[in-house]
Structures
1.
Amino acid sequence: MKNMEKNQVAVLDITGVNSEGEGIARHGDDGYVVFVRGALPGERVKGRIVRVQKKFATAVTLDLVTASDVRKIPKCRHYGKCGGCQLQHASYGAQAAIKAKILTDALRRIAKIELPYQIDCTPSPEEWGYRNKTALPVQAGMGRGKSSLVCGYYEQGSHNIVPFRECPVLTPLLQKVVPSLIAALDAANLKGYDEKGRSGDIRYIAARSGGSVRDEEALSCVVAAHDYSKRELGRLKNVHQKLGVAVPALSGSVLNINTDSGNFIWGPAFQSLNGKRQIEQRLAEYRFQTDISAFFQVNRGQAETMFSHVRECVREIGAQNVLELYSGVGSLTAYLSGVVEQIDAVEEWRPAVRQMEENMTRNGARNVRVHPDAVERFLSQSENTRSSTYDTVVLDPPRTGCPEAATDAIGRIAPNHVVYVSCNPATLARDVARLMEDGRYEIRGVRAFDMFPQTAHVETVAVLARRR
């Protein structure tokens, strides 16, 4: 029962952390839940209530009454205002423990799974400077005499932008490319986007780093709010040609047009502004071409570790005929191709499909059939799924997880094993619960990987086995 008011100040004891990186406290005799930004387990804080709902309230930390011994000074000047990171105030060892607990709690609360062992969270090889891709919203500036655009990350829980000054989780190259790109677009007097009026020139910018060895080159993209005239396009090309000279590591730039009113970043059409349209990424012995839009793990060092683990899981269960869903540009596909007989890889995003086909040839993966289709449509129409020829399903869906129709179809296929790679413990737990209905499957293993240091996000690999 609600027993707090907005702007109330209370002393709160923190017992855990939720999936948003907020401390969890209970207040009053009825144990009313309060989520406290900037608080860590074991701390007592003075917090101010900023939001009240029937079942919980949200507070911000005003002062530390008792501080945790794992608390540290955040590295980024924007921390606490920018919504990109949630755990910079915790030591790295504590971050890994928090993420393992978030995953454990989600499986227990949503899927009703009590594991007989403690989940391990494999730390990232790099705590900082690991993120090889970013996309930043761009909004209209402050008017005459001011900047024509404001670009940065959103504040937590809002669409207010924190102007970009630094981002230490980005690769060192992107930390140079992003501010140079913002300054060049602003100097060209290109206008940021007005969400309410649906006006302006630029909605987002994006950048990705990579290269044949590590991070020696980058791509950039401007996502436009409207079709550009020939004159406007010429001006934008001129900006990027000059930028390519000023920042030689920026080897290519593209323009994307997105006139849709939704929040999805990409529109359907891309065109070159300067230089390359693709960049090479390397994971261990594998090479992949990616454009700016296709999904590729942002932490390459940790991706190598996680993909090797998935490959070993698939090898140990004896998988031979594999259906892989949400395959992207084929990075995990290439890892699996060497330990199974056949893979049917399904991917909807057409630019990624083209790159996956190229990447399979580049990596000698001749046992992969690429299916350019939405997962739900493929599962409902494919003769292969109806005849249940797959012994293993491997899937790596977006944060929203699998539609119920997809998990139902996997149940009908009835593979011996399901290997589920997830970046969201809540949707993973929901989908696992669906697959385990009526005792069809049981959990054989769960392992967490810290793909996103300094944030509350965690990657998970879960292996399910069909009950005989």
Note: The mean pLDDT is 94.
2.
Amino acid sequence: MDTNSHPVAVLEIGSTGIRLIVAEISGNGQWQVLDRIGKPVALGKDVFNSGQVTRESLLECLSVLRNFREFLKGWNISGSDVHVIATSALRAARNRDMFTDRVMLETGFNLKIVEGIEENRLMYLAVQFAIKNDLPLFWRGNSMILEMGGGSTEIMLLRRGQIVSAHSLRMGTILINQAIRRSASWAEDRYLQENLRNTAELLGTEMELSHVRTFVVAGSDARVAALQVGKELNENCFTILRETFIQFVEQVQNYSVEECMNKLQINSAEAKIFIPGIIVYRYLLEKTGAAQVVVPNVSIREGLLIDLALGIDSGLREDFYSQIYASAINLGRKYHFDEAHHRHVADFCLTMFDSLIPEHGMNRRDRMRLEVAALLHDIGMFIRASGHQMHGQYIVSNAEIFGLHREELELIANVIRYHRGDLPNPADINYIALQREDRIRMLKMAAILRVADALDRGHSRQIKKITLERKNETIIINTEGNRDLSLEQIGLEEKANMFQDVFGYKIILN
């Protein structure tokens, strides 16, 4: 580690326990785990039974967190270097705001509840790190990444390492346990089979599962199986042959909790959720054409560590943004968008964004958000041409795009809403619901997108390339590759009003 290295802590409050990683991040973007500890806490059992964190579980969590805080003092880690996240159990808890407030007051930890799609993003980063270049098929063919937690299942489909779709499904080991605890056999339970069939059908609409060649399972139950029958791929990853995994599931699927504890050397909390997890993995594995199961020895905690280092490595950040674009494009294809037009408008948006940095003051992530909005701005045409900006807003605000937070999706959905038609007004609840800073960002992005969209009004790509020139209070758009631009001129006259209101410049087409 270099002299700029510093220790950080990542603390995760999950459905079955609270786990902590202490690591050191260096100035060159590298990181190394220094210590890790965990404590079982049955938070998910409470929440998925009653809908909220009980007083007893709250007190137990606070006790564990106070102990972890004292532990971190020994590493001299505090404040902004402690990153505390919570996953599906707290996402589902009605009293999660109260829980978060109590944690802050009692421990000083600023707890962030991670959305399901954000879990997917962090897990992707962790899996990518674990596999490295030791599994070329992951980067060349179709892949599925699957993680089953106590309250949700995170699934990603990839083509040549690029995200096709990402889902966070309300199907976890604790939920399955509760639904079928009276069943005599896991393998024959109707509830489990119907959930798995529905999941497979959903995934099959996005990728032919029989074409999946790499089946990646990231979860504690999969790691138990890997330790029993797997082989080491590298220091962070195991592989299990397809038939070996299936035989292992057949061998253990009727184990009692006590047998799981004794024969697999796992604790009671792990034993109670082990069987439903591996049965889900087996079912989906058999739908794929994968010859082996890949089990990375990582979690979203490692994913968050990598995320903390991404700000240092711009190359990794750009690779991550490319995954966001791939996910957005696949969403557009699902709704049969005009891909050539959307990509062309996106290119115009980026040219304008880069030329107007002094005027808009937005950052690199804002540039990515604008590009996603441009790639999907006409997606509502799938429903109806009339008012398609509002249909597009609905589709995007209810979609899952890999790597984007819910707040970012709402921002992008509003940009799409105002890429044409009326300007925003205080009666628009979705617009007013944005934070003040996001409303300003949205107006800037929508103003740019309206102009860019006008430049390809006929979807014929008459204008091949643009450059911007400032003259006093006017911005002139110079064009290349154009023929008759009368349609584009009309479009610009119709849509330039927001740009002039937001930036104060009159904009004309040369």
Note: The chain is about 50% helix and 20% strand.
3.
Amino acid sequence: MYLLGYDLGSSSVKASLVNAETGRTVATAFCPKQEAPIKSLQPGWAEQSPADWWTRVKAATAELTASLGPSRPEIKAIGISYQMHGLVLLDQANKLLRDAIIWCDSRGVPYGEKAFREVGQERCLASLLNSPGNFTASKLAWVMEHEQDTFARIARVLLPGEWLNWRLTGEFTTTPEGLSEQMLWDFKRNQPAQFMLDWFGFRREWWPDIHQVFGEHGHLTGEAALELGLTPGIPVTYVAGDQPNNALSLAVLDPGEVASTGGTSGVVYGIIGAPQHDPQSRVNCFAHVNHSTASPRIGVMACINGCGILNSWMRRNVAPEMSYAQMNDAASQVPAGSDGVSILPWGNGAERVLQNRDDACSVHGLSFTRHDRRHLLRAAQEGIAFAFMYGMEVMGTLGMDIHTIHAGRANLFLSPVFRQTLSDVSGATIVLHDTDGASGAARGAGIGAGLYTSPREAFNTLATLAQIHPGPDAYKVKDAYARWKNLI
């Protein structure tokens, strides 16, 4: 008996098959093998085609099932994790109206800022827990002004994972978590934020009916099953944004627990037990996957857009002949602090932690006679870790005292330099687990299907791979962080 999880990211679609009884991931696949392209028709824009997402879902599923041999696995449920804050628009015939505007697109910023001013800061922060910022509703406001023909034909507004669920099941659903990441969930009233819909001029019927994150979102249609090589009728029982899902995959569910990930963007995501907000809106607060009115669970997220994308830029432009492992080895040959080189890792859209400033990446302290590319490779990873720390300091103003950070052994957390720097600068222990977003989504599907008595039971078998503690060079790292912070 198996559970299938999809993780629809901006760099790839991943699929994992998990044994529901043992919790072991028995197969995994992803597509494409190189980082998926992002269309940037103008500076600050970022779009992808949902049709390409579906092609990748099919390819990853085919690779996954082929690895298991000729027998078709008995899949009891499907879970979906997806890149957050995207905007997918369908017409009355459920045809795509345009490419999806994705999370790192910055064009919604002025619309969110205007809403924050005119709706009122106090009301937005008290009800939404955030400023409207650059989230989905603000992206839709851009479409309303600049693509009036498209706007006039809208019948459905969906997040990327909600679109994938429709493609699998033919059903449209949303969740409180999904609405909260769009800035359309009213935490004071525990219902969609009608005051925001009214202010923007959006129609409530464009958004699907509300389901719980863990629960039935539809069943695999015959058409989708044929395309995927699966059995029709499998229920989709879990749909969640990638960062709440990453926290779930690391069993981060209750107040005080913290998860982190270092993919294209980087995130530190902690749980608090009551709706709160940052008065300057530098961190994001969303409904967590297990949030309820009776037991509030709010995910506080410090997001760094310029994270893994900086590391991949370094590989393409500074060390094109190196693998990531070789880059990590080269970075380790330079002492902590990168001999005075500092890199601010911005440059991938508006940064929430900088109050939506869209700053460029910058290099400081570089000497042409003393430094080489090894210093740049290390300074890039240190700069990303320092940006994480900067976000964690903001999270601390909401009462979070971070002693342990849980992460999957993937992406930037494969780098000894990055994870040791993060431990040194924060003073926290980094706990690495054998999991990923697709496996977490699969276990989430098991929870939603009622195969586990609680979310905790679903993660009883979660394996710990390593623990990283602050080391003897922590004082050097903290000095480098102070130098880096003065540059912002």
Note: The mean pLDDT is 95.
